[in-house]
Each structure stands twice: as C-alpha cells, then as structure tokens.
Amino acid sequence: MIRDIAKTAARCSDTLVQDAVGAIALGVIFVVSLHMPAFF
After folding, report:
1. Is the distance from CB of 9 to CB of 16 less than 8 angstroms?
2. Looking at residue 19, what is its pLDDT?
3. CA 13 to CA 16: how far, in whole Å?
4. For the range 5-13, what are the long-range contacts, defined as Cβ-Cβ under 8 Å and sequence gap of 24 or more?
5. Transmembrane residues, as ranges (predicted)?
6. Residue 5, SS3?
7. Alpha carbon of 19 to those of 1, 31, 35, 36: distances in Å?
8. pLDDT tens-digit series, residues 22-35
9. What is the DSSP letter of 1?
10. pLDDT higher than threshold 90 for residue 6
11. Which residues are CB-neighbours of 9 under 8 A, at least 6 positions away?
12. What is the average pLDDT across 8-33?
C-alpha cells in the first residue's frame, strides 16, 4: 500500500501540490469566515 501511494504521488506530483495549496486555502477561508462575527 505504501508503494501504491508513492507511485501515485510520483505520477501526479504537480497537481498534488496544487491540490494541497487549494485545501489549505479553503481551510483558511473557513476559519476566517467563522471568526468574522467576533470582529463586528
């Protein structure tokens, strides 16, 4: 199973980084939007 994950990561390493950045951005947007009412 580790080999399968490594092969998959090697095949799509370009999009893997973009997907990770997108997921982090969505998480940041989610956390900021939840804290917005505290500012007003």
Report:
1. yes
2. 92
3. 5
4. none
5. 20-39
6. helix
7. 21, 18, 25, 26
8. 999 999 999 999 99
9. -
10. no
11. 16
12. 91
